[in-house]
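Appendix B, example 12.
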Amino acid sequence: MIHSLLQRWRLFVKRLTGDGLLWRLERKRVAQGSQFRVPASRFTSEQRRGLHLLRANQALPDRTAWLSETNGYLAALGLDPVALAPGDGPLYFSLQSTSKASSVEGDSVSILMSAYNAEWSIDLAISSIVAQTWRNWELWVCDDRSTDKTLEKLRAWAQRDDRIHVLEAPVNVGPYVLRNWSLRHAKGRWVTVHDSDDWNHPQRLEKQVKYQQEHPETFGHRGHWVRISSDGTFRADLSPDGFLRHSSVTAFFDRQTLLNRLGGWDPVRYAGDVELLSRADSVPDLSMGALKTLLVLGLDHPRSLSADVRWGSQASRKTKRNRVLYREAFATWHASKDFHPYWNCFEEGSRPFPAPEDMQVPLTTVSRFL
């Protein structure tokens, strides 16, 4: 964790000096509606790539200009262009693939998804999986006791594509118990996750499997995403190109290693993905790689998972404090001499480290998924 914090500090300092300062000033001017002033030649190649998304934001609400700049960004990353559905609906919900679906063969990939009251976003999320260029995948999607039409939509998707499997939770538990549950059903060579309000680039699985084939020394890797609002505004971030950053929702694992060496996710209500990746990093003979290209567009919206008022990153002060306490507790466990990475939440026994009470799903509830 200390190494990660030092890396982010060095990046922060770099962004504040030299060309990084010009880049920050230019981003601020454009965000305020001003025209570009600094020649593109003054920026690094990564910053020049980010200029496409700055221009896309500036082009709104011109859909044609927005799409041209968005595809310029994708092209700079070596990715296929995207299209927009006809009409004037929100840009994010209008995204469509131009790639040929199911055109690439290879190892099987299991995708794990949980969904709670996601009728407003689930169609886009699943359609971005069905549109993948990678043919050999299966989707295990768990309904977390939704009270809207989410389950109805999931069943309809399963009838249309036999690669889609629906599980119904007996009680609401949040994403991490459901990921562990669906992991026990999965059969793929590889496993990854997808949120019910995010959009996959059509080459996501193709790029991730090929990365693993080219890096056999790793048992998995982290990918990258860009945050976007429903109106098409890309959210700036502290990263080399100003937008692209690593994301836990793009993590990709060897399924047997994840299941047999790590056991799965901590059965908490939120932040369990951070703990799992840190736990993997704490095992000397398990190596995680990094695929530095855009795999996912993550929705930045009041109804999105990350903005959930109960548990999201924009939640209450208490929840944010709980996240800090949780990180400190698992970091202490990972660094302890008694640390053992395997943790199966479906096996009885106490937690290997403490977590704030309102983060936890009671063991009696977890046991209902056995």
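The two ends are 33 Å apart (CA to CA). The longest strand covers residues 288-299.
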